Amino acid sequence: MSTPTKSPESGWRGSAEGWLQAAYDSLVESGVEAVRIQPLAKKLNLSRTSFYWFFKDRDELLAALIERWRAKNTGNLVGQAEAYAESIAEAILNVFDCWLTPALFDSQFEFAVRSWALQEPRVAEEVDVADKARLAALSGMFERFGFDGMSADVRARSTYLTQIGYISMNTHEDALTRMQRIPEYVKIFTGQPPQPRELERFYARHGYAVQAPTLVALAAKGPLHT
Question: 50: domain range?
Answer without folding.
Answer: 1-55
